[in-house]
Design brief:
The structure is a homotetramer. Chain A is of the alpha/beta class. Helices cover about 30% and strands about 20% of the residues of chain A. Chains A, B, C, D: One of its GO terms (biological process) is L-arginine biosynthetic process.
Chain lengths: ~350, ~350, ~350, ~350
């Protein structure tokens, strides 16, 4: 049996190039098509020069998707654009992993409220599976359409899922204070990503209304018996990659740090990409890898639980998780092609 | 009347060099003495080469303090060392600003608990004034011994003082999630400050037990009618200078963002170094200056108050604040020599 | 006699904000006008938020220049735009310091060749003085129009002037390998200044044809009895500010490192902003200050002279040097308002 | 036939961890032993926490080498220490790749002159092969002892080999102006690698006497018919990984940029890790990969050839090249386990 054929729609951004970086050494699939409307006709390596001599495939217009025999397609497109492609491709014989935010929320209405945009494909919400394998592995295996989670939500949900599933913390008053690298803001230069505005600097942004707030809250709500309300504050780090979320919650019963570690180890048993660590993780501990490192502790003085959750936003927060989903959807071992060791330093 | 004569005890660290950087252009004082035990006999500019041709003073042993006619002495020494000097110098005719943590807490007992060290000069606690001019201006003016606040506490206390003074928030459950530049860890190379361990990286440290926790809590307690309990989590940024604290608190009554801004503007009226800003501050907004920028907002969705408080840890968090205290102690205008504009970018 | 009145034309860029940062504490001048076409009507501090409460002046359209009583005007405009303003203002009663490249070269023809643009004001070349005070102090004092040097040329010319003036090196085959911070590329976001393209990265650019090549070569030619030819290669550092040029030249006669140091000390005697240092300078040794640090050595093994020359590109490479020129043009002491100590770290 | 058994002597440094990072996914070898004197008994992942759950091998004392069945041993030790191990192990049945500088030079005498240290194992020089596969592939295949090249020399030699082999440039007067990331300075914290001394900073070091000078010069001498003399100046970049060398040479006959590119393409044909690129390479173009990117151009105005040569100092400049050598010594395909795509950004 030959390798599975993969298409990547959208080649100019960071998630597109990161998908290619990982897939090129994946033993069970081959990249059959990479598309870009704006750069069609150019070589992939003309845009991403670090791929010279490695991936010199010529970029195609998206119209080539339907002329190519594909098993699975990644949509590496901005939100609001992706939904048009899902609508068009949903009945095609290939499966879809959508890396945008277009099908992650509960309904078109919630989408409209937080993305300030009318959704054009309501039907997609019925079939889309939220692609966090540690929560939804079996559903993902059966799915034709996976909504790949956001980067911040991956840290926050993995960091909180055991506590909320077990009803161990107050579901209101949770704080998620997150810090992200700049690649999360995309490949397109803007004032906020201009080097002198970021270097040797640090600031919060998107206070009170960042779209990932609702993605985190909705997903945790499904795990929790009580209505979840959480405060999410993102900050911009002067680094390329990586998210660290510092999470504060209040237990509803007596717990020790040892109890919490036992719970987390048990909850993530059999999930190879979550590592419960004995030390506070740094973002370099997971850089360029698909791991999520989680540290949990209880402060007896204040009565708070503190969870630290770290990922590489381009890997476990985007392309790596998308490939983890692809592996499940194609019946492959979940870790195939994803065994890269973190690059540290 | 001539200029006041200043001594700086401890020249090799960042607070020492930052004191000199600012004082050299201060119109009302002159640096009469800089001491260093380990580098006595060398020029100040041999150690801090950016001062070549500007400050070529030869470093003296500390024994010169008593042979020099001085109006005020800065102790730029590590905690645990500083107390010996305060004990020795306290009855001398010059005033003292101590930049260490040795006299900031309420008592030798609290010091012992959080610094794991016996305090050798209990009497110092009776006369030491906590040198945060925005809270203690009049006491500082009268004081012979000022304990200059820690860097994290400066952000947290200035960020929370109006709320606690007015009894507007729950005094338990306050979260202070702080992020600091590396100079806060001192001039001496260690594993945690090794470039490849910090660059493009980010992590939390000192969870649950950082010494500044008690300094913040004790100071706020004096402002509050209720017992304060707070969670303080410091993180290490890959930047040289700057602290941003993201503070979460829950109001005890209905409040709007406008109410909060009005309160903060009123509270800090007449305090030229606190700026209540309409935008979330970045640490570069205050870099190399003595300002503290504060942003405050209320989230109606969650019911939380969020305060962002930013300083340069070496200036408002150390040397600049020490000079602000000096100005008050010497009867000068509080802002003399401290009007540097932030260096951004 | 009152303070001199200064206008700044162009407020949104880095040179504009850096001029304001320094001038606001200058004891002999006052900022009477700041203009911006694109942001007129807004406050200066709305654009540069670190100036909140310090410089809240409302920006004016450039048409206000002629309605304001001014002693001197800084043009902080892009090249190609500046020439129009010089043409218009040249006969006005105020003096002009032009920070663009429009009047630095020898003739409109040379300008056209290297800037690929027709020059609209040929007459300006007759009166413009190249504003490097260490070479042209007396001419600057008499000038109505000063062309403020480029950032790279400041390092290269100061680094080579003593050698070429004395005819000590081969005038052909000089190598200037320069490395600059990102602010040199301007305030406007572009692909080359997008944070993930710069951070943890390094590359050369503008090989063989950077416009500063001719500025360096033409200026050195005037000092040299032989025709100068030099190779200039700029590189982009992942830092905000600072240029270090590493310069290689071959002596025409026997020389020692001691000879070279004596020559440089003598050449720059009485020039307070050039420091001949005993150690290889770092860019932080001069950061946020108007100093140029120069280190010179002879390698007996290879027979090469190596010169290292470091400045802050926004200060001695732009705004600081412009103010140094202003001081000379207004009959003030050259160092007035420019005594800031380097900010390190 | 089973996998080859590999030992790594020295586990705490960057080359040790980088060897493990790559070898753990190498399909033809297994790591049978990792030693550390100072940390024996601890897990590899206790020291390098990003390996948690991936490489939890317990570190052994070096004495275990002789008790283990090994095919090849990497010495990831400081120079001056490595020679003792080579002396001891040279007659053992396993092959050796030495990553230190102890056997790279021509003779013990040259070693003594540049390393200021007596060499204890003169015999090693007879059999050691300089491990640059692009020059010495066949010799490496036959060798029992390979001296893995230095990081700077790898860029400089690969950048200059075609020109000197063909006698196309003046062999005297070559300039190699190199810029390196901080990991080149090792894992041990020192003043020069203290974060605030490197971040937002840049400086030259080791002027005139860096040990890699002689390694570059000696190797090029073997390719050249004329005696080579070159000036090598390293600089320290505020980045983790990567070296860019900017090389200047003067042609002895007429050449075009097209001629030079054709020459380089021909010279490196069949060498999969050297990429001759149409654009000036950035160090991120090769980060975390085994590639060396080379750009070459001729400047008609000045008559200089400029070569830009970029590697990751920890991969092609150390561990990756060592594994490339291992592949050749063990009869494997040269690229086995080394196909990682550069991590950019």
């Amino acid at each position: 049996m030959g390798k599975k054929k993969i298409g990547i729609i959208g080649a100019t951004g960071y998630t597109g190039s990161e998908l290619v970086r990982i897939l090129v050494n994946h033993p069970e699939v081959e990249i059959a098509l990479i598309t870009s409307e704006s750069r069609a006709g150019e070589k992939f390596s003309d845009i991403h020069t670090s791929f010279r001599g490695i991936v010199d495939i010529v970029l195609q217009p998206a119209s080539q998707v339907e002329k190519t025999d594909l098993d699975l397609v990644f949509l590496a497109l901005p939100h609001g654009v992706s939904m048009d492609f899902v609508k068009k491709y949903h009945q095609k014989p290939f499966k879809i992993v959508d890396l945008s935010g277009d099908f992650r929320l509960d309904s078109p209405e919630v989408y409209h409220e937080w993305y300030q945009k009318e959704h054009v494909y309501h039907e997609g919400f019925d079939s889309a599976v939220f692609g966090l394998p540690e929560l939804n592995r079996e559903n993902i295996k059966q799915s034709e359409l996976v909504a790949n989670p956001g980067c911040f939500p991956t840290t926050a949900i993995l960091g909180l899922a055991p506590l909320l599933s077990e009803g161990l913390v107050e579901s209101r008053g949770i704080i998620v204070d997150s810090k992200t690298g700049v690649t999360g803001a995309g490949v397109k230069p803007k004032e906020v990503t201009h080097f002198p505005n970021v270097n040797d600097n640090f600031k919060a942004y998107g206070l009170k209304k960042h779209r990932h707030t609702i993605e985190i809250q909705d997903t945790l709500n499904k795990l929790s018996s009580e209505e979840v309300s959480l405060q999410f504050t993102p900050h911009l780090l002067p680094v390329d990659r990586g998210i660290l979320s510092t999470i504060y919650a209040r237990p509803v019963k007596e717990l020790t740090t040892a109890d919490l570690n036992a719970l987390y180890l048990r909850y993530y048993e059999g999930h190879p990409f979550v590592r419960i660590t004995p030390e506070a993780p740094s973002i370099k501990d997971v850089r360029a890898s698909n791991y999520c490192n989680i540290f949990i502790t209880f402060d007896e003085r204040t009565g708070n639980i503190i969870v630290l959750s770290a990922i590489d936003n381009l890997v476990k927060g985007a392309a790596g998780q998308a490939i983890q989903n692809m592996n499940l959807m194609l019946g492959l071992d979940e870790t195939t092609g994803l065994k890269q060791v973190p690059v540290n330093p």
